[in-house]
Amino acid sequence: MTDLFSYLIRRLGWMLLTVWAVYTFSFILMRSVPGNPFSSERNVPPAIERQLRARFNLDAPPLQQYTDYLVGIVTRGDLGVSIKLEDYTVNEVLAEGFPVSASLAILALVFAITLGVTAGVVSAVYRGTAGDLALMGTAVLGIAIPNFVLASLAILLFVFWIPLFPAAGWGTLRQVILPALCLGAPVAAYIARLTRAGMLEVLGREHVRTAFAKGLPKRTVILKHVLPGALLPVVSYLGPATASVLTGSLVLEKIFALPGIGSHFIYAATQRDYTLAMGMVLTYTVLLFVMNSLVDISYAVIDPRVKLQ
């Protein structure tokens, strides 16, 4: 328990340092690119632009902007007001968009883990057969094809040719199944390959051969003696898998018109909405750090030989 507490304290310190570094780097990049949030095809009158700059504190020196925004985040958790979305704060945008993105990510991960582990186990048990080659060939394709290409093909197949799902929107389970499948497919392919490799390694160990020699049913040996050890590489991959799902959702939310934080992130980047973009960057940073920490803890729980450091 003491080791876990000290680990969490260290991770919290590293997270704060990482968030500060990301905030600083993002602030510098946003102010370094040409143009500003008020640059558009229609020129804003100078007087109105001065008023807008004053409203959003953009008329202050860069160092003061940096300090004021950072103090607001630290003291009040205030990510500011969106420059382009009138009457919306960044916190309100996150509160509305996060449940959508979280639902999509969770469903995609559940699909990826279920399909990937099942395919990996079947492929390892029937190694060298036509089924093994077919499953691993499909996994290679899943890794090679980007999810936005897969989404386009899925829309053609399951919306126009075989109308099983709606093309876009949010509100029902049918509307989120197709984007979740497209988002989780590449992750499922990686998990299938990792599971197969882990299964083949554990199948060759002495305790597994002993279990087979004692006459235990094949299903019992696979589920109780082989699978737990084979899943350790999969657990370690869940951190990068979470990152893949979160970053992949940026494009898919736009394709399927889902009102998640990914679509808001793209909008903020294209419209140069400094505060909204910064809020999204910091949110993704915290999410990825927390998920990687949870994966490390779960790895230590599954394998007691692993020590949290």
UniProtKB/TrEMBL annotation:
Keyword Endoplasmic reticulum annotated: no
All copies of domain ABC transmembrane type-1, residue ranges: 98-299
Residue ranges of the TM segments: 12-30, 104-126, 133-164, 176-195, 281-302
GO annotation terms (biological process): transmembrane transport
Subcellular location: Cell membrane
The entry's keywords: Cell membrane, Membrane, Transmembrane, Transmembrane helix, Transport
Bilayer topology term: Multi-pass membrane protein
Pfam families: BPD_transp_1 (PF00528)
GO cellular component entries: plasma membrane
Family: Belongs to the binding-protein-dependent transport system permease family.
Annotated PANTHER family: INNER MEMBRANE ABC TRANSPORTER, OLIGOPEPTIDE TRANSPORT SYSTEM PERMEASE PROTEIN OPPB
Protein name per its UniProtKB record: Dipeptide transport system permease protein DppB
Organism: Allorhodopirellula solitaria
